[in-house]
């Protein structure tokens, strides 16, 4: 039974990344690659067996949003009703690195409004859900799609990057506003990659400073924070208008937000004098970088993603879990209202060794369980960590208690779902698609 007022949020996730590669011809659907469509009931069993109550989870956007104002809720109806029956709390991940074919990519200015309509329709159909991540890792999505040329539009320009960033940020804001029309007490856990760029030499200080300013862009826009002068010129030089910039300053919903910080060993970078980067490995670590973000935005924090591959010794991921947990406790003990921790994801992932740039089918041993749904050592360690700390943290917490309205507060809210597989409009009514 989930308590009325949970203290610390221990979570995992089932990744629903869907970027396209190869000029849009190949869809990198992680739910498919990892077998979730076939094994979703077993996956939910495993979440419960580990003792996890919170799950970062969302329907596949490319098969659920099938056209403007047109939705196929068949898979979502099965899974979200089952989560509700089990008493598992979803943190709903609505857009994860890709768009349906009819929208194309993140250069499309129609994306924000159509996505907001989808978010509203989702909230209306599943009104017991309170926690959302409307758009996952906006900064990474824009970088990989529009500056590095890896995904979706596969462009490599500052102008394309600014365009993707403003569309992703606006989509996130419009979706939050749409959800709040349905659930005024909704909370938004904005999972965003927390990065740092280290200068390799004095000549690299300038490029590193620019990159360290750029890492904040998506959250600055979402939280209505004025960017610094370098970033303002960068935005204006690359297609953002003054009116668009002031839209973000004047339309933030910061008071509904928990700042989700994602941290991996790959989040810190070395920068050379030419502005080229390479991985530095962990230098500062999660605690130091999270303090940088907290000091900028002054919002409650959740550690929303981390993992490490299980290596040849079999204990590498377990050691990383313990290190990240020590960082979480350090941040909390320093007075930051840190409300949760996430090992991401539940299962091993596929092709993240190439950042989903190549469709190789390589299994990456990053999960709490493997793709045969057998528990990895880190799964056992996370289960033990949750058991040992769940009762201690709420009584010793210096942070807020997240005001969750759980299942029993919405006993009669299940809408009259149509039969499975039927395409529906925003009201939930079946559509005639002939």
TrEMBL record:
Full protein name: Family 1 glycosylhydrolase
SUPFAM superfamilies: (Trans)glycosidases
Organism: Massilia phyllostachyos
Lineage: Bacteria, Pseudomonadati, Pseudomonadota, Betaproteobacteria, Burkholderiales
């Amino acid at each position: 039974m989930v308590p009325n007022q949970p203290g610390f949020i221990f979570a995992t996730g089932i990744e629903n990344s869907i970027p396209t590669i190869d000029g849009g011809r190949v869809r990198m659907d992680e739910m498919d690659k990892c077998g979730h469509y076939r094994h979703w009931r077993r996956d939910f069993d495993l979440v419960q067996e580990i003792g996890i109550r919170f799950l970062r989870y969302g329907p596949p956007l490319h098969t659920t949003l099938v056209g403007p104002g047109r939705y196929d809720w068949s898979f979502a109806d099965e899974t979200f009703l089952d989560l509700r029956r089990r008493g598992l709390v979803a943190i709903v991940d609505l857009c994860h690195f890709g768009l349906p074919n009819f929208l194309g990519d993140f250069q499309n200015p129609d994306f924000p409004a159509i996505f907001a309509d989808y978010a509203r329709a989702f909230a209306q159909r599943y009104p017991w859900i309170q926690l959302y991540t409307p758009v996952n890792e906006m900064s990474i999505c824009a970088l990989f799609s529009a500056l590095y040329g890896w995904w979706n539009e596969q462009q490599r320009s500052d102008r394309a990057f600014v365009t993707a960033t403003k569309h992703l940020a606006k989509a996130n804001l419009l979706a939050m506003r749409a959800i709040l029309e349905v659930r005024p007490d909704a909370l938004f856990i904005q999972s965003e990659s927390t990065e740092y760029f280290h200068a390799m030499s004095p000549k690299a200080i300038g490029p590193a400073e620019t990159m360290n300013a750029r890492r904040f862009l998506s959250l600055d826009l979402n939280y209505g924070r004025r960017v610094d002068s370098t970033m303002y010129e960068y935005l204006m030089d690359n297609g953002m208008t003054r009116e668009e910039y002031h839209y973000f300053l004047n339309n933030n919903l910061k008071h509904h937000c928990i700042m989700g910080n994602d941290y991996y060993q790959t989040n810190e970078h070395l920068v050379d004098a030419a502005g080229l980067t390479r991985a530095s490995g962990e230098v500062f670590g999660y605690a130091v970088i999270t303090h940088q973000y907290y000091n900028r935005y002054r919002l409650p924090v959740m550690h929303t993603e981390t993992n490490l591959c299980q290596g040849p010794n079999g204990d590498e991921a377990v050691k990383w879990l313990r290190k990240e947990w020590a960082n979480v406790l350090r941040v909390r003990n320093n007075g930051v209202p840190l409300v949760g921790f996430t090992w991401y994801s539940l299962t091993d992932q596929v092709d993240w060794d190439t950042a989903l740039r190549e469709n190789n089918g390589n299994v990456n041993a990053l999960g709490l369980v493997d793709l045969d749904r057998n528990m990895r050592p880190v799964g056992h360690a996370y289960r033990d960590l949750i058991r040992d700390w769940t009762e201690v943290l709420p009584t010793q917490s210096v942070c807020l208690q997240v005001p969750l309205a759980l299942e029993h507060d919405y006993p009669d809210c299940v809408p009259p779902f149509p039969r499975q597989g039927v395409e529906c409009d925003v009201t939930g009514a079946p559509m005639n698609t002939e």
